[in-house]
């Protein structure tokens, strides 16, 4: 190896520019909080000095903590609890400890978590992003902090590596099954429109309905909470839905609650498609047919990309998607069979 | 206020003793890793200098992070997920952010978490302790780090403040109900004997059986996992148990699984007492009768004690217990009524 030549640090850039390290960092991340003229001057200076963002990353991580930070939007949502548990288990095999923060679907909380994790020297961050924190996440990446997004993506042309699930295969298989069994109309409980998962799943649901030629179905625009699932399921039942199709695991619990309170037996009086795997979904009297995201594989991929970033290598894949799958159990009524057998439709 | 006089720091003690800060810290914490003679010499020197542990705590926290650390043994256990969520919510109202680590019931992982949290400047720690980490936790407290134990206590005469639940009222009410309904014999799934919760609940169960004069019942010595609950419930059913009584929420899921696989309808073919509240426990076809620990109140008390410690005031109460309560739903069969009505006993 050739002798390593002088590598200027962010501190060098800041000192020569006569600004604070924080300002230099923001200017290099092209943060509009710094006046455009100042940004340009500092960027030019950094370029002249041969400064590279990684030099800062190296300085930041001069004493590696061997710890990664994980930010999820909820812990009472079993899907995210399973995700952080698998992230920790996978990271542990790579010699990395894991600390966790819960953003509670709140941008301010997430922003504070990102600051804490960064200033307390984690080696990298795996984050289920809140879209309001897009700029902060992009800045962190530009400053050399290894960041991987999991479960959700940022809108636009973000270059932050992602590990997400592809809802299409599972949703298409579910709609095909429901169309085949004539378990219609479907009442779909959509996730929130300010999450990529909410938008994509609704889009894939509508596309699947079009493909199956069952026409437009009932949709409730909801959110990732049990109470919202309960409210939506109750409304969709009132509107005549024969199948309740939940857009996430928390709304699946809300769907079970709504059926329970309405005295409807799932798999006998009403059909249900759940989302995600939960031990108690499979233990319903008519075990729930669900769309499975393979959360373990998602978590493993996110850690795999992050460890490559931490090692300073360019990850082999930066946008990875895991296909969803339909797990067919017993919560879908086959009305076609009933018709054939001369049984009433309900 | 009088002018504050010179307060020696741990660094001063270490320098004058000619040892490292780590050694001085351990000696003052009476850690046997330091030779007895050295410990005595350093303790004497600290006393001569007028060193007080709090001075170190103040130095450690000279720049308050307004962040607390929480260590729980599992996140897929809904009880602990609910606990950290409530701790975060309560801490947030007090202006404190929360970072979480999952010890995974492993002493080495907990030990690493304690080190990370301490060295990264959290203002205090709420911890579900692993008993193998007792000395480390005691040392931390002696060094002035605010620490509160939640859910579990340390054996012996630990002076670390605790917020735990008292299993006695809930368990006594459950056993009384089962005795009254003649839902016997009871098969009790005990938690592990290396946790205070496992020991206390089993003790209270045995005492309640003695009080109710129903004699010795069936006991399976288990652990806080669904798979262990499944195994234990299956064995207890084989041994003729008419009621399965779960010693925690994960084993409750294992009990539901065992009944499901055996084709037994809970509340009709077999009686079940669950532990803790989970939305899906209340949504079983015969909603589960459970023992509720009031996890929100537990979390709030733990934060309340911790904020007092962080503020430097002596907490008004350092050992707080929240009584458990029986939530009576529909999973207990009344065999006495059946007998009276001339119905068969099962």
Automatic annotation (TrEMBL), chains A, B:
Domain HTH lacI-type per the UniProt entry, residue ranges: 8-62
Keywords: DNA-binding, Transcription, Transcription regulation
Presence of the UniProt keyword Iron-sulfur in the record: no
Protein origin, superkingdom: Bacteria
GO molecular function, one term: DNA-binding transcription factor activity
InterPro entries xref list: HTH_LacI, Lambda_DNA-bd_dom_sf, Peripla_BP_I, SBP_2_dom
Protein name as annotated: Transcriptional regulators
Organism of provenance: Corynebacterium glutamicum (strain ATCC 13032 / DSM 20300 / JCM 1318 / BCRC 11384 / CCUG 27702 / LMG 3730 / NBRC 12168 / NCIMB 10025 / NRRL B-2784 / 534)
Lineage, opening ranks: Bacteria, Bacillati, Actinomycetota, Actinomycetes, Mycobacteriales
């Amino acid at each position: 190896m050739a002798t390593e030549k002088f590598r200027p640090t962010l501190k060098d850039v800041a000192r020569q520019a006569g600004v604070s390290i924080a300002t230099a960092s923001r200017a290099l991340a092209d943060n509009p909080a710094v006046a455009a003229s100042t940004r340009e001057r500092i960027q030019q200076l950094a370029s002249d000095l041969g400064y590279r963002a990684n030099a800062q990353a190296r300085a930041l991580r001069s004493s590696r903590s061997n710890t990664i930070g994980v930010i999820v939007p909820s812990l009472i949502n079993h899907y995210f609890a399973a995700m952080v548990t698998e992230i920790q288990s996978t990271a542990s095999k790579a010699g990395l400890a894991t600390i966790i923060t819960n953003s509670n679907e709140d941008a301010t909380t997430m922003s504070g978590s990102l600051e804490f994790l960064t200033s307390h020297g984690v080696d990298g961050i795996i984050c289920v992003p809140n879209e309001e924190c897009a700029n902060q996440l992009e800045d962190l990446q530009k400053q050399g902090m290894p960041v991987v997004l999991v479960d959700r993506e940022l809108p636009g042309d973000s270059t932050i590596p992602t590990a997400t699930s592809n809802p299409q295969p599972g949703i298409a298989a579910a709609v095909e099954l429901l169309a085949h069994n004539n378990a219609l109309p479907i009442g779909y409980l959509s996730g929130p429109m300010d999450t990529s998962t909410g938008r994509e799943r609704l889009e894939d649901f509508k596309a699947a309905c079009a493909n199956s030629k069952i026409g437009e179905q009932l949709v409730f625009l909801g959110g990732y909470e049990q109470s919202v699932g309960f409210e939506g399921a109750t409304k969709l039942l009132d509107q005549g839905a024969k199948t309740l199709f939940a857009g996430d695991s928390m709304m699946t619990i809300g769907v079970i609650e709504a059926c329970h309170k309405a005295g409807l037996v799932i798999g006998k009086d009403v059909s249900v498609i759940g989302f995600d795997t939960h031990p108690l979904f499979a233990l319903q009297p008519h075990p729930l047919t669900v769309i499975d995201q393979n959360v373990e594989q998602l978590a493993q991929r996110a850690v795999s990309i992050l460890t490559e970033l931490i090692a300073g290598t360019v990850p082999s894949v930066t946008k990875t998607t895991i296909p969803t799958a339909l797990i067919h159990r017993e919560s879908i009524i086959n009305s076609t069979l009933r018709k054939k057998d001369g049984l009433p439709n309900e």
